[in-house]
């Protein structure tokens, strides 16, 4: 059946309008989120910063490979793995790096200036915008923050409960310009986190939101890297709307 030209024009206009007003995907929208599957550990892990030890061999790594802000001349190669049990969350980073420098050896000091790795995670599935940021430099010094409206912030005494193993000295100065590989491994006690946040405890099918990051600022190759892409025009690591999914198995 032949339609009148007026009817055709109205139909086309209506279709175009529907496209124009269709909602655009939101930043960090569900269809864009990367997913990491964290298996259950068969037994409690000893923290010794051995990337190739049997407990980690069959765990698939995530790649921290997205740059925010400026892209440096040298691109570090960063991989991370994660497991859990009833008492702890375990994380290990392996970094193939250059231009490594590390000056901070005080807990909760400015470790983000150094060659460092960072784990941002929201452990309450019902409140994905409330998150911890655990930042550990290549010398094994940690900073732990909790971003929420609560004034109850992690103390140095509680941060000491995080067991950290590292392969480089606590202080690296002058800068290591040649290729070097360094590893950070740590266990985070769930009981300590529960002092500050309601936990959706890790179990098969539980989902946390989070991001894995790499940073260096006080060297000759400054950079900021993430696992989950951050596409905001003014990007920072502290954007939970871009966190990926951590699915416990």
Give a short summary of the structure.
With 249 residues, the protein is mostly beta strands. It has helices spanning 5-20, 54-57, 156-159, 190-193; strands spanning 35-38, 62-64, 66-67, 77-84, 88-97, 100-102, 116-122, 131-137, 142-147, 163-166, 172-176, 180-189, 207-216, 223-226, 244-248. It has one domain (37-248): Immunoglobulin-like (Sandwich), CATH 2.60.40.1190.
Which structural category fits the helices and strands?
mainly beta
The CATH class label is Mainly Beta
Alpha-carbon Rg, integer: 22 Å
What is the helix fraction of residues, given as a range? 10-25%
Count of all domains: 1
Element order: H for helix, E for strand: HEHEEEEEEEEHEEEHEEE
| Euclidean distance between termini CA atoms | 57 Å
> What general outline do the C-alpha atoms trace?
globular
- Here the CATH topology equals Immunoglobulin-like
Could you give a short account of the major beta sheet? 8 strands, mixed
Question: Helix segment count?
Answer: 4
CATH architecture: Sandwich
Low-confidence stretches: 1-31
Strand segment tally: 15
Return the average pLDDT rounded to an integer: 89
Portion in strands: 35-45%
Task: Please explain how this structure is put together.
With 249 residues, the protein is mainly beta. It has one domain (37-248): Immunoglobulin-like. The chain is built from 4 helices and 15 strands. The strands form 3 sheets. Strands 1, 3, 7, 8, 9, 13, 14 and 15 form an 8-stranded mixed β-sheet that branches. It has a 5-stranded antiparallel β-sheet with strand order 2-4-5-12-10. Strand 13 (207-216) and strand 14 form a beta hairpin. Mean pLDDT is 89; it is low at 1-31.
């Amino acid at each position: 059946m032949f339609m009148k030209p007026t009817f055709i024009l109205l139909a086309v206009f209506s279709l175009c309008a529907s496209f124009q007003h269709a909602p655009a995907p939101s930043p960090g929208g569900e269809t864009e989120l990367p997913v990491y599957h964290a298996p259950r550990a068969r037994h409690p892990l000893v923290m010794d910063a051995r990337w190739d030890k049997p407990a980690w061999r069959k765990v698939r790594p995530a790649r921290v490979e997205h740059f925010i802000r400026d892209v440096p001349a040298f691109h570090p190669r960063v991989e991370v793995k994660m497991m859990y049990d009833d008492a702890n969350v375990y994380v290990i980073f392996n970094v193939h790096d250059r231009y490594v420098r590390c000056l901070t050896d005080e807990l909760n000091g400015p470790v983000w200036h150094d060659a460092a790795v960072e784990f941002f995670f929201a452990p309450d599935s019902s409140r994905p915008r409330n998150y911890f940021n655990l930042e550990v430099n290549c010398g094994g010094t940690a900073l732990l923050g909790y971003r929420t409206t609560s004034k109850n912030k992690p103390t140095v005494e509680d941060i000491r409960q995080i067991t950290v193993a590292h392969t480089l000295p606590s202080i690296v100065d002058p800068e290591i310009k040649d290729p070097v590989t360094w590893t950070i491994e740590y266990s985070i006690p769930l009981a300590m986190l529960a002092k500050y946040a309601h936990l959706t405890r890790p179990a098969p099918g539980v989902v946390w939101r989070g991001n894995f990051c790499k940073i260096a600022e006080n060297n000759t190759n400054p950079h900021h890297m993430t696992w989950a892409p951050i596409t905001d025009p003014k990007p920072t690591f502290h954007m939970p709307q871009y966190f990926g999914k951590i699915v416990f198995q």
